[in-house]
Amino acid sequence: xxxxxAVPDVSSLPRTWRPFGARIAVIVLGTILxxxxxxxxxxxxxxxxxxxTFFQRSTLVFLGxxxxxxxxxxxxxRVVASEEGLAVVNGYRRRDYEWPEVLAxxxxxxxxxxxIDLADGTTxxxxxxxxxxxxxxRGAVRTLRALIDR
Length: 150
Known about the structure:
The protein has one domain (16-150). The two termini are 15 Å apart. The strands form 2 sheets. The protein has a 4-stranded antiparallel beta sheet. Strands 5-6-7 form a 3-stranded antiparallel beta sheet, with helices on one face. The radius of gyration is 21 Å and the shape is elongated. The protein contains 4 helices and 7 strands. By secondary structure, it is an alpha+beta fold.
């Protein structure tokens, strides 16, 4: 480890990481889109609103709920390090790994998110540690490496 980087504090477990930029984007863009659609609908004349069929309205509501569920899944992604191991929540799926199962964590330059190497030869994505979060993501990877190495 380079000498200019501080040794991460691994004594305070459990530790949780969540995506920062992606959560902000989901909240801000989702709110703007919801407000835009609401104001557009309210701006229509009653005759124009009456021309929409039940199926068309249902389709719009369904697409809005679908977009909301995707945003919620991204926003709820997290990685929790505890004494027992690593809990990874990617979207709506949770996986628990014991520390001996986790061999390494990687966040190559340009990668969208971090990945962990597992003892069975597979890898798992960590959507909570987004490469676009910059120093925040690199710090999370350093801390995870220190936890894996201990």
